[in-house]
Structures are given as C-alpha cells and as structure tokens.
Amino acid sequence: MSKAHVIAFYLPQFHPTPDNDKWWGKGFTEWTNVGKARPLFPGHYQPRIPADLGYYDLRLPIVREEQVDLARRSGIEAFCYYHYWFGEGKQELDYPFKEVLKLGKPDFPFCLCWANESWHAKFWNKNGGCTKKMLIEQRYLGIEDYKLHFYSLLSAFKDCRYYKIDDRPVFMIYRPLEFPDVVNFITVWRKLAKENSMRDFYFMAQTTMRADIDKILSLGFDAVNYVGLWEWKTENRILNKIKRRFYSDILHMPYIHKYSDMVKKLSMMNREYEDSKVFPTIIPNWDHTPRSGRGGYILHGSTPQLFSNHVKSIFDNIKVKPVEKRYVFLKSWNEWGEGNYMEPDLKFGDNYINVLSKELRNEE
Q1: For residue 247, is it left (φ>0), alpha (ψ between -120 and 50) or beta?
Q2: Is the backbone peptide bond immediately before 332 cis, with ω within 30 degrees of 0?
Q3: What is the tens place of the pLDDT at every residue in 206-241?
C-alpha cells in the first residue's frame, strides 16, 4: 500500500428545507446563489455551470449514485459528509445522509464532520464588509445532549460503510477550539462507544492555523486535518489587512490571490507532510463570491494543470510518512457556492476528476 488515501468533504445542501424556505424563499438551495453569480472583474470565472449532473436535487437517489460513480473514477475513497447538530436534536441538511443510511445506497464509504458553528445571514456591503444576523445558534448543552447526539448517529457508526482509520470510525470536529467542553465530549463518546460494542473513535479536528495543531492534539484528538487555504498568503498579518482594505475600500473588489501562488507555497510546508498526526488538504479552487459578492475571497486562475501540480506535490511530500498514514482530505467534492468542487462543469468538464485519478494511479 503506497498510494495516498483521499477523503472528500461533501456538502449535503442541495435540497429544499423548511428553514431555508423561511429564511430565503420557497425552494432555495445553494444553486440559487450559484446560478445568479456574475463576473466581478475581467477574467473572473462566473457563473459556474454544472455539466454532467446539472443543477441536481440530493433528494433523488440517482443523483447520489452518479456522484459516487464520479468519485470512484477519481480515486476518492470516501465522502466526509458535513453534519449539523445544534443541540436538543436540532439538525439541518440531514435528509441526504439519512437516506444513504436508510437505503443502504450508494455502496460507498463515508464518515462525518460535525460542522459545529452557528449559522448567520450575512449582508455584504459594496465595500466588502458585512453585518451578521443569527439564524441558528450552535449550542453545547452537556452530557445528556452529547448522549442524544451519539445515539442519533449510532446506526451510522455501525454501518459497514463507515470509514475507519486504524480500524476506528473517523469523526471530525470542524471548530475544535470553539467547543469549550470538547475534552468532556470526547471522553463521553469514547465511553459510549465501548458501551455499545464499538471500536474507539478516531477523533479528528480541522484547523486553518498551523500554530493551533499542538493545542488541538493536546485536547485528545487523534489527528488534525490542516487546511492551508488562507494561511499561506503571507506571515505578515498587517500586510494582509492592508491588502484586504485596499481591495475592499479602494478597488471595491473581492480579495483576489493567484491559485498558482497557493500551489507553490503549500508545496514547501513541512509539518503537514512529516507528522503522522497531521493530514494535509488538496484544494481544487476557491471563490465564494456567489454567496458574498464583492466581499468574497478568490483563488484566481485554477486550471486542471495547476491542480495536477498541487496534487503531485502533496503526494510526493507525504511519502515521508508511514504508508498507513498517507491520508489527504480534498476540499471539496461539491461546494459550488464557494467555487470549491470536483464535479464537472461546462468550462473544464471532468478534467479535475481525471487529474486526481491520474496522480493516484502514478502513486501505485
């Protein structure tokens, strides 16, 4: 076993929900934002129009099967579904995953990432600033709620498709340092796993800050997924702020960086490739102006060839790790509203999928 193991984040948003109907209008999904996006400067790739799968609805089993067919082609080993639990049983965007469990299809490995943050409506002004209105608050309600949360997912953890590392089910927490009681949560869930004849969890956390890795691991996590989406720009935070202000206040533009610069910078990082408890991330693209307009952040100029360079450099660098720890997360499979997806579009077709497949074959 020499090749990298790629796990792709999966956004279960593309279906109507009662709350989204209430907040944004009947039938709203992420496609609403994606479809109305427009270019904000010369050469800006918008709108992004899905090709093979179209503007799909995740309530349809055939759509989920077709996504898995494409993921298998690319060499992805599992989907990591974003999971939303706000306390006292309040969930959002849970229908697609519940259908995957109920139907036993698609027959494709999965794990869960608890996206533990409050939801806000963000209202962007022309200068790129925004105000926020609370929609749902992320609450941490103690042991009884942790138990309720665990038992709501027990059938998933016991499903033969649930993805494991070291033969332990993977569960990721998106914002570990915003969860004040996370140590107790981990302790409670480890105890519940034992009581329910499960193997212990493989707890993971995500971070965008390298400086936080040791602190996160000290809380009881087995590993950290590092997402180098923003931190690569410059170590000079003052310069970052000046540049951001220049774009927003002077140019009235989104915050734009070259995708090629990100690829070069991430290829030179060390800890993510040497530490067996830190898993790096590959990033096909980023542009969340469909959601935030001129307040957005853009990695400009991604192409399949540059993505190929990015993937190859990550795969080459993690070869220093033991073969059983060569895990890589892909952000993401289908976050169209952030321009962060692998699914075919009208401009590049399935070229990103083909690139990943080719680089994984080269690893064998």
Answers
A1: alpha
A2: yes
A3: 999 999 999 999 999 999 999 988 776 655 667 767
| Nearest of 73, 21, 3 to residue 349 by alpha carbon | 73
Cα–Cα distances in Å, from 74 out to 23, 92, 283, 307, 340? Answer: 36, 29, 14, 13, 16
Residues in a beta bridge with 172: 113, 204
Distance (Å, whole) CA 49 – CA 266: 28
SS3 label, residue 182: helix
Could you tell me if 205 and 218 are in contact, meaning their C-beta atoms sit under 8 angstroms apart?
no
* Helix locations, 75-217, DSSP H: 95-103, 143-157, 182-195, 213-217
243's tokens: 């540049």
Mean of pLDDT values over 104-132: 84
- pLDDT of 65 above 70: yes
Helices (H), the chain: 18-24, 30-36, 61-74, 95-103, 143-157, 182-195, 213-217, 237-245, 259-266, 271-274, 289-292, 304-317, 351-363
The per-residue pLDDT for range 291-311, each reduced to its tens digit, is: 988 888 899 999 999 999 999
The DSSP secondary structure of 130-157, one letter per residue, reads: EEEEEEE------HHHHHHHHHHHHHHH
Give the C-alpha separation, 224 to 239, whole Å. Answer: 28
Contacts of 109 (CB under 8 A, 6+ apart): 77, 78, 79, 161, 162, 163
Residue 168's pLDDT is 98
H or E segment to which residue 165 belongs:
strand 164-165
CA 78 to chain centre: 13
What's the pLDDT at 127? 54
* Residues 356 and 70: beta-carbon distance below 8 Å: no
Q: How many helices (H) and strands (E) does the chain have?
A: 13, 18
